[in-house]
Amino acid sequence: MGNYRFILSGGGTGGHIYPAIAIANELKLRYPTAEFLFVGAKDRMEMEKVPQAGYQIQGLWISGLQRKLTLKNAMFPFKLISSLIKASSIVSRFKPHAVIGTGGFASGPLLRVASGRGIPCVLQEQNSYAGITNKLLKNRVAKICVAYEGMERFFPKGKIVKTGNPVRGDLVKIKTDKKEALKFFQLDPFKKTLLILGGSLGARRINQLIEKELPYFESLGIQLVWQCGKLYYETYKKHHSANVKVVDFLNRMDYTYTMADMIISRAGAGSVSELCIVGKPVIFIPSPNVTEDHQTKNAEALVKEKAALLLKEAQLETDFQTVFSKLYESEETQLALGRNIKKLALPEATKHIVDEIEKLL
Fold it and tell me: Measured between alpha carbons, how far is 9 from 137 in angstroms, rounded to an integer?
């Protein structure tokens, strides 16, 4: 049977949206005549990103609970009831054969309704510390696909399958020549290159750090590709030079990862999974402003395997140069970190997740 119907739900951040799109693309490869519908939160980025990827999406009026007493929190019960009613109507009309949730608030009402009607549901948890929506749904779904060991802390052991996180297909088979990659960025082939990744919007604290440390990098003779993010490009583009390439966004990730000798990055689940496949030495500077501080926990899981270095934002002023110079000065450390992080890569993650969905059809 090829005429399957799938609903995918996840959003709020790219970390939930892109895995859902990757899973849909793999299902489409296997079932070209299948029908797909995405369900997201009305005013979040999935309403733009999913149609760009070629899929239909419907929005629920839902948002998370704030940590303090706000008007938004007072509205939450009404939003939840409205979302459950709309989710019920979507499921009745679309009649899915399977529903896949990748985290984010919109997936809560949808998977609750679908699982209540006996439709097979699969969760995909990207982080080493499970999100609240996925924790609430754990007893209602058939399978939970995870990327880290030790997830029985959050989920029933019998439902867990370690698959890894979906990553962009072009990264799994990078075949780019380093000379070509350096030429693309107009970099010096005789200098070490540091890549700074702050996510698509940028990371304010990392940008402040890099600006402050520019004289230090210059003293080491290092060249930089500094992705400062769309929100910060106007502030930092003045530093663009032969040795410091300031960009708002990086499109050619194959060239980007090939030319880098060392990387400084946030520790979102998607970034961590990509960097495992790339296999370069990384210093993670996790964002402390995320739910349950899950970026720090993602980075700690790699540090435990001697696969990355971790610097918390609170330590940047005091410890950055010490940690960076240890990495920069030791070829041995660079090679060991690159080797160990690559061992943790799960490049076939999307295929394995879809294998699990297939078993339920």
Answer: 13
160-162 and 143-146 strand pairing: parallel
**CA-CA distance, 299 to 361, in Å (whole number)?**
35
Q: What is the pTM of this model?
A: 0.83
Residues 255-273, mean pLDDT to the nearest whole number: 94
Strands of the chain, DSSP E: 5-9, 35-41, 57-60, 98-101, 121-125, 143-146, 160-162, 193-197, 223-227, 244-247, 262-265, 282-284, 309-310
Instruction: From 320, 49, 286, 298, select the one nearest 211 (Cα to Cα).
Output: 320
pLDDT digits 0-9 by tens, 224-244: 999 999 889 999 999 999 999
Rounded to whole angstroms, how far apart are CA atoms 197 and 200? Answer: 8
Say if residue 69's pLDDT is above 70. no
Banded pLDDT at 286 (limits 50, 70, 90): very high
**Cβ–Cβ < 8 Å for 51, 102:** no
Per residue in 270-280, pLDDT (tens digit) is 899 999 999 99
- Domains of the chain (ranges, CATH numbers): 5-165+347-360 (3.40.50.2000), 170-343 (3.40.50.2000)
Distance CA 76, CA 65 (A): 7
Q: Which residue matches tokens 């052991």?
A: 157
Q: Which element (helix H / strand E) includes 334?
A: helix 331-343
Q: Encoding tokens for residue 1?
A: 């049977």
Q: Which residues are paired to 181 by β-bridges?
A: none
